[in-house]
Amino acid sequence: MTTTRIHLDNQAGKKHSELSDRLGTIAAQCEPLVAGTVGTGLPAELTTRMFIPRAWRTRVMDNMRGMFAEEVRALTPDPLAVKNAYRQLRVQGVGLRLTWMLFGPRTVTLPDGTREIWFMPDSARHAGIYHHDEMTLAFAHELIHPAQHHRSPELLATFGTPFPQQRGLAGRAIMPFVEGHATWGGIRIATAVLGHAPEKNGPDRQTPSRRFPFWHRGFRDSRKATYEDPVAFFTQVIEGTDEEPGLGVDRFNGVWADIDCFPTTEEMSNAKRWLERVRPLLAETHPGSSVRIGDDR
Q1: Is it the case that residue 70 has pLDDT exceeding 90?
Q2: What is the pTM of this model?
Q3: What is the C-alpha to C-alpha distance for residues 37 and 249, in angstroms, rounded to an integer?
Q4: 40 within 8 A of 148, measured Cβ to Cβ
Q5: How far, in Å, CA of 214 to CA of 78, rounded?
Q6: Beta strand residue intervals within the chain, DSSP E
């Protein structure tokens, strides 16, 4: 199995040097487990960059503007759609300035197609997880995103498009599916690394900043619906239940080849219905197989 070379670029300052070293250790522990957990390896090289909040916000917004411009060029949407999407982009910029401390590691796609992970150590301080097990979970989760992209570079490169209708993404539960899959795998990787399931309120958790709870309360439900609630979906569709076998990791990974395999918003809360629809679609990705999808648990 090929080992991924993970480079850590600390642009957040010397005060975070110890964290940079610790993240290097976390990455080295998690990286070998990614392929075995989600069935897809990482690219040969991967860079994680640490930024101060202002630099992170600037980089993220520049990246989003670049994608916006590229999507306009590629799709030539009508002027009203462009105007509405640009308005939404400006709202997102305001949101990043106000709520940056809610953001953990973030996988971004650069113009050349390379994926990097960008992270603000100060956001971890605000959340109280700077020295906590959740840091391991956060990076175990985030390492799965480059693996997803490595498996399906073209499809996932545009899942954040401001024009989902034209990309065929409208009505699909893209964010809960992609993020929930990363959480499902991240929990398993972090548990293997730590020797126990990561605890949200373990003894090493620090008190969050005064600003953090205010913004966290406002986005708690939406974040839970995107990152935490879908874990049950993936447990059922991949691992299976006593009543119905799951797809298994290898067959599940057929979904990354076809947007039609992605669940709708309704299916995301009804795993059984999604399985009924996609089993025939995923069977087509294994035409030579004599094993029915779901028989290998």
Answers
A1: yes
A2: 0.91
A3: 8
A4: yes
A5: 39
A6: 5-10, 45-50, 106-109, 115-119
